[in-house]
Design brief:
14 strands, alpha+beta, 5-stranded antiparallel β-sheet, Uridine Diphospho-n-acetylenolpyruvylglucosamine Reductase, domain 3, 4-stranded antiparallel β-sheet, 3 domains, Enolase-like, domain 1, globular, binds flavin-adenine dinucleotide, 24% strand
């Protein structure tokens, strides 16, 4: 393991002073739970010169609903605290479900949603849920802040658009649409502590008292180099009265957005079939939550 220095700023100003001297990608790595980073540093997959603990910075611990803006989820908030937040339980079900799937209870107590996103693994369980809720990522550094849609954040496995001297301050989840529900499912060959062979989140919004879809969002994990939205399937659903046939056809259409590889966890065909099954199941879960069972 390559030696590194450790720092733990307690304010944004202190953090930016540290970041101001950083010029090389990977030179500094923030740490929150360390559930990804510690293993990566130990095995040489990441070799930072500086590891920066950001948990003592108050803004990183923000978990707050702001009317008209949505839910601000700071970089240091754990999966456990996110899932326990009443508004997450009521209105961002798929986020709650993702939090409950990451590793184990012990991992969830340490790990953050932002760490899961910043690590940028194609299999990250919180990302499809963030995508269906149209999350945005707030990056901060010595030059100020910038906000980008989560959809535009990833550039490849383990890579994202952050500059070497930027860190994620928070993600913002906008208010969910009226009369909507979201769910996330993944497939792993055992009950827990495994990487998704495929994962799907969906969000459905329905016209009041009906099965008419006013908005659909579908996002896929582990079936391409980066997590993706299944936009053709979303467009197919919107404006339609949802029936069994429509749900099945949407699930088949979602497969077109997947570009999986064959590896030890599953073949291309197996993963495509999982996308179909998980899309159908999560859409039905949304209908169920909206009291519109088929
Ligand atoms: C036993 C085990 C089981 C796991 N199971 C799952 C699972 O089921 N599903 C799943 O998706 N993941 C799983 N993981 C991976 C990991 O737990 C998650 O990705 C977790 O959410 C990472 O959060 P963290 O706070 O621990 O991140 P850290 O390890 O602290 O950081 C992860 C990466 O993100 C960077 N980073 C962290 N915060 C920021 C920031 N604010 N700005 C910029 N970069 C930042 C770090 O530098 C590092 O590169 C598992 C890990 C272990 C060890």
């Amino acid at each position: 393991m390559k030696a590194f220095s450790f720092t733990a700023p307690t304010t944004i100003k202190e953090m930016n002073e540290i970041l101001a001297n950083v010029t090389t990608p990977g030179e500094i790595h923030p740490i929150v739970g360390g559930t990804d980073l510690i293993e990566q540093v130990k095995t040489g997959r990441r070799s930072p010169s500086i590891v920066m603990d950001i948990k003592q910075i108050p803004e990183m611990n923000r978990l707050e609903w702001v009317s008209g803006e949505g839910l601000h989820l700071g970089a240091a908030v754990s999966c456990t605290d996110t899932a326990a937040f009443p508004l997450v339980q009521e209105s961002y079900e798929s986020i709650k479900e993702s939090c409950g799937l990451i590793g184990s209870v012990q991992i969830q107590n340490r790990a953050s949603i932002v760490g899961n996103i910043a690590n940028s693994a194609p299999s990250a369980d919180s990302v499809p849920s963030g995508l269906v809720h149209e999350a945005s990522v707030v990056l901060i550094g010595p030059s100020g802040t910038r906000t980008i849609p989560l959809e535009d954040f990833f550039t490849g496995p383990g890579r994202n658009v952050s500059k070497p001297n930027e860190v994620v301050l928070e993600i913002i989840l906008p208010p969910p649409p009226n009369n909507s529900s979201s769910h996330y499912l993944r497939f792993i060959p055992r009950n827990e502590m495994d990487i998704a062979v495929a994962g799907v989140a969906t969000l459905l919004s329905l016209a009041p008292g009906s099965r008419t879809c006013t908005k659909a969002r579908i996002a896929l994990a582990s079936v391409g180099p980066i997590p993706v939205r299944a936009k053709a399937a979303e467009t197919f659903l919107e404006g339609k009265d949802l029936t069994n046939d429509i749900i099945e056809k949407a699930a088949e259409t979602a497969v077109e957005s997947a570009s999986p590889i064959t590896d030890v966890r599953g073949s291309i065909e197996y993963r495509k079939n999982l996308v179909k099954v998980l899309t159908e199941n999560t859409l039905r879960m949304c209908l169920n939550s909206l009291n519109q069972n088929l």
